[in-house]
Amino acid sequence: MRYGTWGPTDLKRALDPYGAEQYKSNGVMVVARDRVQDAVLERLAEDVDDE
């Protein structure tokens, strides 16, 4: 499992450059699924551009 050792700080660091910010929901810090998906797609597009 590649990300099994990640904590909240690691996730925040990876998602911040893509605007996928965390927010509180019922007192728990969360990241919306669509924000994560958009960040992944943006990162993949960057990887393609680098090739």
Short description:
The protein is mainly alpha-helical and 51 residues long. The chain has 2 helices and 2 strands.
Describe it.
- This protein has 51 residues and is mainly α.
- It has two helices and two strands, in the order H-E-E-H.
- The N and C termini lie far apart (26 Å).
- The model has no long low-confidence stretch (mean pLDDT 88).
Helical segment count = 2
Describe the main β-sheet briefly. 2 strands, antiparallel
User: Approximately what portion of the residues adopt beta-strand conformation?
Assistant: 5-15%
Radius of gyration: 12 Å
Uncertain segments are: none
Q: What is the SS-derived class? A: mainly alpha
The shape is globular
**First-residue to last-residue Cα separation:** 26 Å
Q: Averaging pLDDT over every residue, what do you get?
A: 88
Q: In percent, how helical is the residue content?
A: 40-55%
The overall strand count is 2
Placed side by side, the strands forming the largest sheet appear as: 1-2
Element string (H = helix, E = strand): HEEH
